[in-house]
Design goal:
There is one protein chain. By secondary structure, the protein is α/β, with parallel strands linked by helices. It is built from 13 helices and 21 strands. The strands form 6 sheets. The protein has a 4-stranded mixed beta sheet, with helices on one face. A 4-stranded mixed beta sheet has the order 4-5-7-6. The chain has a 4-stranded mixed beta sheet with strand order 8-9-11-10, covered by helices on one side. Helix 2 packs parallel to helix 3, helix 4 (about 110-120) runs parallel beside helix 6 (about 155-165) and helix 8 runs parallel beside helix 12 (about 375-390).
Length: about 425
């Protein structure tokens, strides 16, 4: 599997502000991490070329070594890059930064990061009262504080933890529910003075002053990318796939829980621990799936997998309901609206709600003219739906898959043959 996108971003960012060299094996050579690396290079960080199969080295500049760039920092299509950069740059006292991105990123909400950063003394400005890019960051000396985040978002939390590294005193971030914890795990490995407490690990405190040191990072395969093959393997008659080296961090395995509940035949093989992250191989074989229902309680652990679960629901004999998913309306696209629109074009019975969808499955899908609407997860989800539909489909803007899975179409062709 391609390397985990979340861990790839963080290994670049944490390596940049560490002292010494960070070596990254398995870094995802896709557009989003490449955007993060490009921004860091503009601030004086030496990063070796990011290519398939390459070991990437990051020459750290230390906590306060980032230079003021002469150019705008282009985050491309990557919300993770922009949101984490806001936290990284807010405390660079006296330095000025401008962040921008593509048309899709300019529509995504950034106040959810800028507002809690402001409580630490940050100065972030942009369109719509600082909610929309382009964004200007005037670096300031930050103060430590206690911050309750309004949503369980790993991006918001990680931005605050990055800002906390150079604040004047301890910062504590309190989440309403636990989001993916890659930042906490990796920051501790790099040497940050970070503690996790409270109910189910929702209180994260950072004491500033610790020096980060370069590390060797091994990036596991991305379970969000594996999800497309898990659903395809469950639905396509005769399928038998083993997906190797998949990250099984418990804050990311909601997809496995749901697939287990609905009868998917998935085995975890060779479970192991790699560089602080649980990893295993997943074997999936074809079998009938049952209708399902899930809501906000599990959403932080499978938010990226909702589009492919919409496809799975079309092939479950009965009514499936997804709720508590309003966060999907502010992703690369409004994923609830896009999936409803595209699956309806194939003949699916799908009803959109404010925070989710209801899908009545068991009816055959038909080939259609489809459009990813520039969203990588939509593109790959529709590819699985098209394989199972009657008749041929065409998919406009299929290149969107490269944002997180550059070799998706080659893998799909190989597996079909």
């Amino acid at each position: 599997m391609p390397g985990d996108k979340s861990i790839s971003h963080r290994s670049l960012l944490f390596g940049a502000i560490a002292e010494g060299t960070t070596t990254i094996q398995g870094l995802l050579p896709a557009e989003d991490p490449i955007s993060t690396a490009a921004c860091l290079r503009l601030m004086g960080v030496a990063i070796s070329p990011i290519e398939a199969g390459a070991i990437v080295t990051v020459e750290g500049v230390g906590l306060d070594g980032l230079k003021e760039p002469a150019e705008i920092l282009n985050c491309g299509n990557s919300g993770t890059t922009m949101r984490l950069m806001l936290g990284l740059l807010a405390g660079r006292d006296g330095r000025h930064f401008v962040l921008d991105g593509d048309a899709s990123l300019r529509r995504r909400p950034m106040r959810r990061v800028g507002q809690p950063l402001a409580s630490m003394g940050a100065d972030v400005r942009g369109r719509d009262g600082g909610n929309l890019a382009p964004l200007a960051v005037q670096g300031r000396a930050l103060k430590g504080t206690v911050i309750g985040t309004p949503v369980a978002s790993a991006q918001v939390k990680s931005a605050l933890l990055l800002a906390a590294l150079t604040a004047g005193s301890t910062t504590t971030v309190i989440e309403p529910a636990q989001s993916r914890d890659h930042s906490e795990r990796m920051l501790k490995a790099f040497g940050a003075d970070l503690t996790v407490g409270g109910e189910i690990g929702r209180h994260i405190s950072v004491q500033p002053g610790a020096t980060l040191h370069g590390q060797t990072v091994v990036v596991p395969g991305d379970i969000s990318s594996a999800a497309f093959w898990l659903v395809a393997g469950s639905l396509i008659p005769g399928a038998d796939l083993t997906i190797e080296n998949v990250g099984l961090n418990p804050t990311r395995t909601g997809i496995l829980e749901i697939l287990d509940q609905i009868g998917a035949r998935i085995e975890v093989l060779n479970p192991r621990d790699v560089a602080g992250e649980p990893v295993g191989d997943l074997r999936v074989t074809h079998g009938a799936l049952q209708p399902f229902e899930f809501g906000e309680e599990i959403m932080p652990r499978l938010v990226d997998e909702v589009p492919i679960l919409c496809v799975a629901a079309c092939f479950c004999d009965g009514e499936s309901r997804i709720s508590g998913a309003s966060e999907l309306r502010v992703k690369e696209t409004d994923r609830l609206a896009v999936m409803a629109r595209q699956l309806k074009a194939m003949g699916a019975e799908i009803e959109e709600q404010e925070d989710g969808v209801t899908i009545r499955g068991g009816h055959p899908l038909n080939g259609a003219e489809l459009d990813s609407e520039t969203d990588h997860r939509v593109a790959m989800s529709l590819a699985v739906a098209a394989m199972l539909a009657k008749g041929d489909s065409t998919l406009a803007r299929s290149e969107a898959a490269a944002v997180s899975y550059p070799t998706f179409w080659e893998e799909l062709e190989r597996l079909r043959n």
